Amino acid sequence: MKSSLSCGTSPIVGLRFSIHPMADNFVEIIKGALSKADTSNVWMHTDDVSTVMRGKEIHVFDTAKAIVLHAAATGAHVAFNGTFSIGCPGDTTGDSYLEKEDVLVNEPNVKDYRQYVSSQFGLYPMNNPDYMAIIYKEVERAKECGVFNESMHYASGLHGDIHDVFAFLEETFMHARSEQNKHLVMTVNMSINSPSHKGGS
Ligand SMILES: Cc1ncc(C[n+]2csc(CCO)c2C)c(N)n1
Q: Domains along the chain?
């Protein structure tokens, strides 16, 4: 890993995530999802706890959605949890693949998949005194986009087709930061193919 400090001006989006399939063949599902997605536009590393991905925003969201969809397509009940980050002052410019072209490599392969997902997200606009206004605005955006599910402590509930939920997450991640406040963290939990989803899936 290279380690030149970028002083928080870097456009690199990082995502650290885990997939937990509630199935006996969880190893096959995790490894299968990671290998079926085209990861050529992101830097990625998997360990025993999670996987980290770094790259341009569009490629991180494109690759993450494909990985989740490939795990979901097995039919197993799968949980995804991830932390997205951009603009961290302590971040480094290495392992980023920023030179990649803006052509999505997974979207053509997964665009026809349909998958209901129930999700909870949290926004953390770092060092921004107006953070509550930003959070309320983004919750309003979720309502306008038709993916809002319910209010709750410490997160907001989203649900719907995975393409709509991911599109919202990418949009809100773009809008909840600014030139003055570059550092943003977003947490996302998803539950897929859950027996609790009566009629929605
Ligand atoms: C996305 C993602 N990356 C890594 C792990 C950790 N993990 C748990 S079991 C397993 C397969 C056997 O090594 C791995 C890699 C995870 N759960 N999800």
A: 13-89+112-192 (3.30.70.930)
